[in-house]
Amino acid sequence: MIGRGDESMGDVSHGGEDNPPPSLRLAAVAVAAAAASAEGGNREGMDLWHEVSGGMEFLQGQSTETAVAVAVAVVAVAAGAAFLLLLRSSKKPKGCLDPENFKEFKLVEKRQISHNVAKFRFALPTPTSVLGLPIGQHISCRGQDATGEEVIKPYTPTTLDSDLGRFELVIKMYPQGRMSHHFREMKVGDYLSVRGPKGRFKYQPGQVRAFGMLAGGSGITPMFQVTRAILENPSDNTKVHLIYANVTYDDILLKEELDSMVETYPDHFKIYYVLNQPPEVWNGGVGFVSMEMIQTHFPAPAADIQILRCGPPPMNKAMAEHLENLGYTKEMQFQF
User: Fold this and answer.
1) What is the 3-state secondary structure (H, E, C) of 265-302?
2) Up-side HSE of residue 152: CA atoms within 13 Å toward CB?
3) InterPro entries from the entry (predicted)?
């Protein structure tokens, strides 16, 4: 440790081959601190910068010219470290996906949420790897149906690239679903073939004032992903208004997570649930999503709002008609 009263420091401007001048030692420690910080070694970097600080205190007892020269050098190194850190943080990590070829990802956790819904967690190559999926886009998953034939189907992960080392899929498994069979049979340790990213949706923070989202059933997953990205970005003030339709209460996917986001971000996220077969005690919508529901819970048509749709084909068709009748132009709408 370099510090005040360290007799081994000797003269600050001279040193033998085996005992370099303390000024050089101090500069070397500063360089090491910069390198450790730039490489993400927070604890090592902090220890080294403490040593630099101690060395700077020692310089107070030296000649003005020497102290100033070394201080300037150390400040320059610190500035270089800050630049390296900024450069390092600004570099977007390379994603693990390949848009042309399928890649294998290991299933590390499978959690049953309801009788026909499960959450699947897949590991990425390293704990700091990112999937590399743009917000609102999806992946193609390949598997085998009950007859052994290959099947490929799109799914939207509920995780973001901020969730390092993994990605998750919430899958509703239908009795006759071909890809549902594959997921139903998957066990921890199995591998899933994935290709991507896919999709036309592109999002930049603040590109609209507000989103109106119409989701039905498993169509909630792209809405969930986009909403998470917006709410977890402190500089994004976009408002989100979601109407989420299902048959029964038990069919509502990600309800706990959605309700938690409403509680955490009450000024930026609103949800209106709609059920065809609601429980006896229910304060949401009943039946199918109507024009009145959209008019009540969505922002009015404007150039700075966008309506996103994702649900079964009959629902998408009906919602497109409702939106057109309410004055939302085609340019204001996007269907996943």
Assistant:
1) CCCCEEEEEEECCCCCCCCCEECCCCHHHHHHHCCCCC
2) 10
3) CBR-like, Cbr1-like_FAD-bd_dom, FAD-bd_FR_type, Flavoprot_Pyr_Nucl_cyt_Rdtase, FNR_nucleotide-bd, OxRdtase_FAD/NAD-bd, Riboflavin_synthase-like_b-brl
328 is annotated as an active-site residue: no
Q: Give 271-306 pLDDT, tens digit per residue.
A: 999 999 999 999 999 999 999 999 999 999 999 999
Integer-rounded Cα radius of gyration of the chain: 28
Catalytic residue among 96, 141, 156, 203: 156
* Active-site residue, selected from the candidate residues 138, 181, 241, 268: 138
β-strand partners of 155: 139
Cα 245 to Cα 233: distance, rounded to the nearest angstrom: 27
In the chain the beta strands, taken as DSSP E runs, fall at: 103-114, 117-123, 138-144, 150-155, 166-172, 191-198, 210-216, 239-246, 269-275, 285-286, 305-310, 333-335
- Residue ranges of the annotated binding site for FAD are 154-155, 170, 172, 179-180, 221
- For the annotated binding site, the residues are 154-155, 170, 172, 179-180, 221
182 is catalytic: no
Contact between 330 and 319 under an 8 Å Cβ cutoff? The reply is: no
CA distances from 333 to 197, 306, 323 (A): 22, 6, 9
Q: Note the pLDDT tens digit of each residue in 95-124.
A: 999 999 999 999 999 999 988 999 999 999
Of the residues 241, 244, 310, 328, which is catalytic?
Answer: 310
Q: Which residue has the tokens 């006896």?
A: 280
> Is residue 158 annotated as part of the catalytic site, yes or no?
no
d(CA 322, CA 333): 12
**Could you give the dihedral angle defined by the CA atoms of residues 114, 226, 294 and 310, in that order, rounded to the nearest 10 degrees?**
-60
Domains of the chain from N-terminus onward: 7-90 (no CATH), 103-198 (2.40.30.10), 210-335 (3.40.50.80)
141 has catalytic annotation: no
Give just the sign of the alpha carbon dihedral 130, 133, 135, 141: negative
